[in-house]
Design brief:
α2 runs antiparallel to α5 and α3 packs antiparallel against α6. It contains eight helices and six strands; from the N terminus they run βαααααααββαβββ. It is an alpha+beta fold. Strands 1-4-3-2 form a four-stranded mixed sheet. It has a two-stranded antiparallel sheet with strand order 5-6. The protein folds into two domains: 198 residues, Cation efflux protein transmembrane domain (Alpha-lytic protease prodomain-like); 103 residues, Alpha-Beta Plaits (2-Layer Sandwich), CATH 3.30.70.
């Protein structure tokens, strides 16, 4: 039995630009914090519960964005003897927390909308409208800055969804302000709040689902395990596979382990087979980390084929010349 690993000696391959992601997060934090302050002042001056509620939403988003930034920084730390994968999973934990807070925020908005259906409040539509426009423009800029990074990282996708939710919320407040200004129909505010909350909930549930699947080490949704096995079996010298496991370490970093059954060949021949396996996994399926254990075709499970091509029980202590 031989065990081989395809991995960097000190660190796993980085799937996206951390520096670019950090810059995007700092921009988003600055914009969100600024909009929050403006909405608090505008909400007090206009007596707008919508603006004050949205400011609370912004405060939660600032905290979530800071969490994303901390997780991104921790992910840069190299592996150690106690954390052999480093802290890459912090990114997924941050994404899970972000998704969960989005669900809670949306539930709170829907609750406030229910209260407004029962007792609509009079607000200063002029102040409400201008503050909402400022928030819409600022959040639109932040969302545009984060769009690229959000496609490569679950953590950044969670932060991007927060900003997008803020932009949609500001858009709803702008629309509500216009309707109130021209018609005096205050029920438009809770109606828009419910619609926007449902949009946010949809993205939040997907984020929580993806994060949970990664933490449970499920097969990546963009990789077909059966197709991977068929491709590996097509490699000359590979007779069969078993104990195949495929999971995601962090966004864009997939890992695979498998027992590969080979024919009655010399152990030195497995080197070329391993190289073909690694090239196929990397280039065709973007699996950057693999652990392959070779087994002789004629050996039963629980045995390995030594250099003399003799099946030996894995519990037996191998001699130095067996490797």
């Amino acid at each position: 039995m031989e065990e081989h690993e395809q991995a960097s000696a000190n660190h796993l391959e980085e799937p996206h630009s951390f520096e670019e992601s950090r810059k995007a997060l700092w921009v988003a934090i600055g914009v969100t914090l600024g909009v929050m302050v403006i909405e608090v002042i505008g909400g007090i001056l206009s007596n707008s519960l919508a603006l004050l509620s949205d400011a609370g939403h912004m405060l939660t988003d600032v905290m979530s964005l800071m969490l994303s930034l901390v997780a991104l920084q921790l992910a840069l730390r190299p592996p150690s003897s106690t954390r052999t994968y480093g802290l890459y999973r912090m990114e997924i934990l941050a994404a899970l927390i972000n998704g969960t807070t989005l669900i809670l925020i949306s539930a709170y908005i829907i609750y406030q909308a229910y209260r407004r259906f029962q007792a609509p409040e009079i607000v200063d539509s002029h102040t409400m409208l201008w503050v909402a426009i400022v928030g819409l423009v600022a959040n639109g800029i932040a969302a545009w800055v984060m769009m690229r990074s959000s496609k490569e990282s679950l953590n950044l996708r969670g932060a991007y969804l927060h900003i997008l939710g803020d932009a949609l919320s500001s858009l709803g407040v702008v629309g509500g302000g216009l309707v109130i200004y021209f018609t005096g129909w205050y029920l438009i505010d809770p109606i828009l709040s419910v619609i926007l909350s449902m949009v946010i909930l949809r993205g939040a549930f997907v984020l929580v689902k993806d994060s949970t699947n990664i933490l449970l080490e499920a097969v990546p949704k963009d990789v077909d395990l059966e197709e991977v096995q068929r491709a590996l079996k097509s490699i000359p010298g590979v007779k069969d596979l078993h104990h195949v496991h495929l999971w995601t370490i962090s966004s864009g970093i997939h890992a695979l382990s498998a027992h590969v059954v080979v024919g009655d060949i010399q152990v030195s021949r497995t080197g070329s087979i391993l190289q073909e396996i690694n090239e196929l996994l990397t280039h065709q399926f973007r699996i950057s980390h693999s652990t392959i254990q070779f087994e002789c075709e004629n050996c039963e499970e629980g045995f390995y084929c030594n250099i003399d091509r003799v099946c030996v029980a894995v519990t037996a202590k191998p001699h130095a010349h067996d490797h």
